[in-house]
Amino acid sequence: MTRAISLHDVSKAYTRGARVVDRLTLDITPGEFLVLLGPSGCGKSTVLRMIAGLEEIDEGRLLLDGEYANDLPPSGRDMAMVFQNFALYPNMTGRDNIGFPLRIESPGADPRPRVDATARMLGIEDLLDRLPGQLSGGERQRVAMGRAIARHPSAFLMDEPLSNLDAKLRTHLRAEISRLTQELGVTTIYVTHDQAEAMSLGDRVAVLRGGVLQQVDTPRVVYALPGNVFVAAFIGTPRINLLRGLVRAPLDGAMTISLGKQFLRLPEPLSLDHQLLRVQQGREVIVGLRSEAVRIAKHSAARPGEVPITGLVEHVEFQGHEILVHFNTGSSPAVVPELEAPRPRPGRPVRRRRRDGSVLTRLRERTGAGRAGPVIAVDRPEAAAPATADVRLPGDLIVRTTPDLALRHGMQVPLLVDLAHLLVFDQHGDRICPHPDRLPDLGE
């Protein structure tokens, strides 16, 4: 049996009073594989421990299959947890470690049939008679997973189970975890800071920052349509290109986004997303371009929706199956430590969306025109604090391309930008293009 798990406005604070989880609302459907993703200290393990009953919930409600479960003890929640450090009994063999929870649940029953079935599923039959000290890291983690699977729980809670393993073994076990959870059909919540694990494993990914849920959606949507600058910068390798842009929307000319010495000319007729950018006329914005959103090609080879720019090669990274080219396009990188840091700057006011007011007011709020304060909260590179600033490689634009291109430092190269992959963020770091929500109905 699998189960639904719901968190409603759940908060957790420790002795100093700072909330490590702040009003988290999240619904996990039966059989879903949900990944909690975020940097260290964002509260994802605390969320997992509150679901397991290992941490008390200070505020909010936990519902298991629709029933209130805040006060339910861990033993009554029918969940199995897999830890980062394996947590095996050193004086017990693999068979005894897997069978231990079965003997606790049913003292008179023989655990051997279920232990043997679990071992066959994981391919660890030859490890059952060994002590943990005689096993490698990957073998110990398989035994730890076997201990969780043998119980036939209603949910798996996995707290960074692969972080202590080498890269090759992580890739192998990641595929095993995906196969096993699909076969078992059990609700799974998986905590990690590794975006590769999150994108390859999860049915949905929930991104946390400073205890606050930033976005929850499928891996494809979270990557292609990040809700804000933090999600965009945290997910994706190489890191997304973030550039300072200035919207120019004259009434008698083409609409453009200036990138310093060059500009992106938005094609006519303007799409709905680009029409909404008119509200940002004269305002600076943050332009986001993934490395695959730009290609190296002659300007005459532009496809519909592509606009030309040029770049000077600063650095070439050979990756084997591809190369990453660092270009200098004369643009200014957007260094936004306040918007990208793992935890928001203390004392920053929390902005809340209003549900009252006219349709025009709400539309202007969604596009950023109705917000008070400075035009943009983007720090200049020289103003960024050295302790928090990223170590950036040369250039302002990274482009992914095939390894057959012969590029060298100092070459002037024609580039084409696919506007279908253009991301634009406002002064608060929220995505405004593509527009984050539908237009409101007049009846709302």
Automatic annotation (TrEMBL):
<feature type="compositionally biased region" description="Basic residues">
    <location>
        <begin position="345"/>
        <end position="355"/>
    </location>
</feature>
<keyword id="KW-0813">Transport</keyword>
<feature type="domain" description="ABC transporter">
    <location>
        <begin position="5"/>
        <end position="235"/>
    </location>
</feature>
<dbReference type="InterPro" id="IPR003593">
    <property type="entry name" value="AAA+_ATPase"/>
</dbReference>
<dbReference type="InterPro" id="IPR003439">
    <property type="entry name" value="ABC_transporter-like_ATP-bd"/>
</dbReference>
<dbReference type="InterPro" id="IPR047641">
    <property type="entry name" value="ABC_transpr_MalK/UgpC-like"/>
</dbReference>
<keyword id="KW-0067">ATP-binding</keyword>
<dbReference type="Pfam" id="PF00005">
    <property type="entry name" value="ABC_tran"/>
</dbReference>
<dbReference type="GO" id="GO:0005524">
    <property type="term" value="F:ATP binding"/>
</dbReference>
<dbReference type="InterPro" id="IPR008995">
    <property type="entry name" value="Mo/tungstate-bd_C_term_dom"/>
</dbReference>
<protein>
    <submittedName>
        <fullName>ABC transporter ATP-binding protein</fullName>
    </submittedName>
</protein>
<dbReference type="InterPro" id="IPR017871">
    <property type="entry name" value="ABC_transporter-like_CS"/>
</dbReference>
<dbReference type="InterPro" id="IPR012340">
    <property type="entry name" value="NA-bd_OB-fold"/>
</dbReference>
<feature type="region of interest" description="Disordered">
    <location>
        <begin position="335"/>
        <end position="357"/>
    </location>
</feature>
<dbReference type="Pfam" id="PF08402">
    <property type="entry name" value="TOBE_2"/>
</dbReference>
<dbReference type="InterPro" id="IPR013611">
    <property type="entry name" value="Transp-assoc_OB_typ2"/>
</dbReference>
<keyword id="KW-0547">Nucleotide-binding</keyword>
<dbReference type="InterPro" id="IPR027417">
    <property type="entry name" value="P-loop_NTPase"/>
</dbReference>
